[in-house]
Specification:
Bound molecules: beta-D-glucopyranose
Distance between the termini: 40 Å
Strand order of the largest sheet: 2-1-3-4-5-11
Largest sheet: 6 strands, parallel
Number of strands: 12
Order of helices and strands: HEHEHEHEEHEHEHHEHEHEHEEHH
Length: 380
């Protein structure tokens, strides 16, 4: 909370200083409905290239906009908040007509968004909600609470406490599990964790699940910037501190494939998955190719597939609506309160992928080829 307040405060200071130095933008914004696509530029700000989903997101949005004749200014911020602020500032001063932003820290862009509003540039929050600003015009994402529900359900299915159809499984437990969450400054991390915990709670309450470390609060289990190495280190620490009595961890709730790979490395280094020691049930998200291979090989248990091609398409539809001076069509106008207002949203469905689903969900849909799944590497 304190952090959010501080971030909002520094955003406000930045907004003032931007306004003071006349950073409202040269071209861009205003009534664009009569202009040709080739005279319009969409600024696309993505968080990082370390995770392949954001590369795919950026490429898809760019290609789809360019196919319609628009100019695109696509920037990646290397997971560095000042870099992203600077890139968005520059898009505004260079006359972007719409901004599409996937924020690194959802609370850190209020100043930029004020400058965009002053220049009448609509802002679309892409996948991650931008918080603490009245100047977010639209939000395109997936149903993030359901992602968390799906991750927890996959953990329960993997352990045998539930069957895939949702009915009660034959396993009884008690099972030792550990929990991980994403970056606290990413609004999605809270939705994922809430969805997961609401789903796991009855099983923790009836003691079929036990979080042996006792770490169940999001602040205790969050991984800053979603970093694989940090997740690996935390898993190593958990194994040392809570499983040095001969007990085994049997399930790990992981909210993102990159974290899952760090967790799996820590587990393998400690002998899990070797002779006589089963790999715990590990969940994931994003269907990253290295993790899809791990699922195919029986090492990771599941992932949540979010088709970034469809998300890119929604971002393009929303951007075009704004450029034609129309309001994009929302399918959710209740869920995403950013601290200042409820942002109209378009939310896409998500799909759980176990080993058996790789072909139908990922290969048949053209997301990955069978060769990529086998090698664990994207052809690009
Ligand atoms: C996205 C996830 C992604 C995570 C880490 C979240 O905001 O919704 O798809 O796994 O960021 O990049």
């Amino acid at each position: 909370m304190g952090k959010r307040f501080l971030a909002a405060f520094s955003g406000a200071v930045l907004a003032l200083s931007l306004a003071a130095c006349g950073g409202e933008g040269a071209g861009g914004g205003g009534d664009t409905s009569g202009e040709k696509p080739s005279d319009l530029t969409i600024g696309v700000s993505m968080p990082t290239q370390t995770s392949e989903r954001w590369i795919a997101d950026g490429n898809s949005v760019k290609q789809k906009l360019e196919a319609k004749g628009y100019k695109v200014d696509l920037q990646y911020a290397g997971d560095d908040i000042p870099t992203q602020s600077q890139q968005v500032d520059q898009m505004i001063t260079q006359g972007a007509d719409v901004l599409v932003i996937a924020a690194i820290d959802g609370t850190a862009l209020s100043g930029q968004l004020q400058a965009a509003a002053d220049a009448k540039i609509p802002v679309i929050a892409y996948d991650r909600l931008i918080r603490d600003s009245p100047n977010v015009n639209f939000y395109v994402s997936f149903d993030n609470y359901k992602v968390g529900v799906a991750q927890a359900t996959a953990l329960l299915v993997g352990l045998g406490l539930l069957n895939k159809d949702g009915s009660k499984g034959t396993a009884k437990g008690p099972f030792n599990i550990e929990l991980f969450a994403g970056s606290l400054d990413d609004n999605n991390a809270h939705f994922f964790f809430d969805g997961a915990m609401d789903t796991l709670k009855p099983f923790i309450d009836d003691k079929s699940l036990r979080v042996k470390s006792g770490q169940t609060a999001i602040e205790q289990v969050a991984i800053l910037r979603w970093q694989q190495e940090t997740a690996q280190k935390r898993m190593e620490d958990l194994l040392t501190s809570s499983y040095n009595d001969g007990s085994k961890v049997q399930g790990v709730l992981s909210p993102y494939d990159g974290l899952s790979r760090g967790i799996i490395t820590a587990l393998q280094n400690a002998g899990y998955g070797g002779s006589g020691s089963k790999m715990p049930v590990v969940t994931g998200q994003d269907a990253e190719i290295a993790s899809v291979k791990l699922i195919n090989d029986g090492v990771q248990s599941s992932t949540i597939f979010k088709d970034t091609r469809l998300l890119a398409e929604q971002a393009v539809i929303a951007a075009e609506a704004f450029l034609q001076e129309k309001e994009p069509q929302a399918n959710d106008t209740k869920t995403y309160d950013n601290g200042v207002k409820v942002v109209p949203s378009f939310l896409l469905p998500v799909q759980t992928v176990y080993k058996d689903d790789i072909k139908s969900a990922l290969v048949d849909s053209g997301y990955w080829t069978a060769e990529e799944v086998a090698s664990g590497q994207a052809k690009g």
